[in-house]
Design goal:
Layout (H helix, E strand, L loop, with lengths): L6 H8 L7 E2 L3 H9 L3 E3 L7 E3 L1 H8 L32 H21 L10 H5 L1 H11 L14 E4 L6 E4 L3 H13 L2 E7 L6 E7 L3
Antiparallel strand pairs: 1-3, 2-3, 4-5, 5-7, 6-7
Amino acid sequence: MTRPPTAAQRRVIDAADPVTGRVRGTEAQLAALVKRGLAFRHPRPPHAHFLTPAGHRIRDAEPAPAAESEAPAAGGVFAARIGGEEDAPVPGPARVREVHSAWQGLLELRRMTNADGAVDRPCAWERTHLVRAAALALEAAGHRPAERDSEEGYRVRATVQPEAVSVHEPDGERLRACATTLEEAGWQVGEHTEPRTRARYLLASPRRA
């Protein structure tokens, strides 16, 4: 059985960039993570270190006990708005900057992890975080997520279909605008009708080629 990371290693993993997975620490800490297969050193300058899929799984698992963890980074962990959240981030200039930074980080992750360096096609991280990835593309393009007690705005939800999310937006014109945004972000999108309510919605999947 694989030995769990030490408390110090877990703190480095937990502090990784939520989108790119970039980790920062001492040379010894980073070397230890690489040795254990939890991070890798990018071959191109500046030779930054990033979480491997195994490292991502550890970070996405239960958080480290409070007694062993440091205070969270300023601003907390970024999460794209999927619509209808109970505790939605406060809108404003700071949120716009956070979303823009997260989107640029995701494009950089595509460049580094797609075999051909393409940034117009989703990467492996997006395929394992479908709802968050689609929501980030929409929020970064300026679409408005649904508020907690409102039917207006987009809502991104998981589906039973592999590698597919549904996007709901009661306004037909805005729904089509969401489809355009996702297509430009490298997603395959189709418009469908809910049999019972006759409401239109999108089914979106990351494009592979």
